[in-house]
Task: structure prediction
Amino acid sequence: MEKLRKAVNEIAYAHDHAKLSPLQRSFVPVLSFASTLYKLALSLRRALYNFGLFREHRLPVPVICVGNLTWGGNGKTPMVEFIARWLADSGISPLILTRGYAGGDEAKMLQRHLLGRPVKIAIGANRAAIASSFLKEYGYVDPHSNNTYSYRTQGHPDSERIGAAILDDGMQHWSLRSDLKIVMVNGLMLWGNSQLLPLGPLREPLNALERADVVVLHHADLIPEQSLKDVELTVREIKEYLPIFFTRMAPSHFFDVGNINSKKPLTALTNTIVLCVSAIGSANAFVQGMKKLGAFYVDQLEFSDHHIFQPKDIEMIRERLGELEKRFGTKPAVIVTEKDYDREPAILKLLDPFQVMALCSELQFIPNKGCTGDSFKKLIKELLEHKFPGAC
Result:
């Protein structure tokens, strides 16, 4: 399955099919047919919502959608955390609505990072229904009535009343209406061959950017300046005055997988042999980041996004570690992301006596033409207050 996934991924990001292997080229007609069926299903689904045959639910609080147009690695979870932290620190209790993919890695990481703040995390595929249940349990702040509490429940303080919802991975979640749409774009991968799934990486055609209120180009620090300009040009051709922001993942420290409270500086990798093991949407960004931290040599093992590590995977990792140790004459260290740790922390301990550390990073805005983290917050506040006076 991993080999098939990698083959399909290479096809999706290949601009010239002549450069594909004969086996990969044999997949193209099948994937093309499936992509056509997907396009028809997408159009039908959209039409059913437009004609009111499928119901679009509306929440009584502002809904901020953080989504994308391609599969994984676009920085949605870090952006959700950034917005939730900002809202909570501004006195607004947010409700994060996440589907909770295999292992619930993203939700676990969010819970840990936002611990102590009045942030609630709801997990489930039917996010409209689960949002309604949370609003009923905790109550909510009505943005149309000077922030007075329009619904009250027993046993919860006023500070827990929900003031906004953040819809994680919600660009294609049409059953819940969003008041503000933030589209994340992976600067390293962009839109591949610009084809719809599964022939390409697109969940929707690029003209879906017309529905966006803000575009954020993630991993902008890892791509050439000309590529940044090309992306801006593409976006402007679709929606001329769409605000564009640049972000990066800034490493902060490591912790040992056997002790989450340990905190090791980034210099811990200096002159070491490193094996990056990841099951995330943008493994290349992770590896490039590690190379910048001064390791002597960086190798990698990549699994599909949200993959849950199995004993056979641990044996594969051990085999690669043995090869590296034999080659360099010293024990290599294993580095995983926080999402990989949160997915299944116990199994990573089976790599003992090799050192296994998780990298902690945070989303940072890269100043560009006056667009900064502060101006992003200001824009989000203005857009929300335009639709919900007094909401922020």
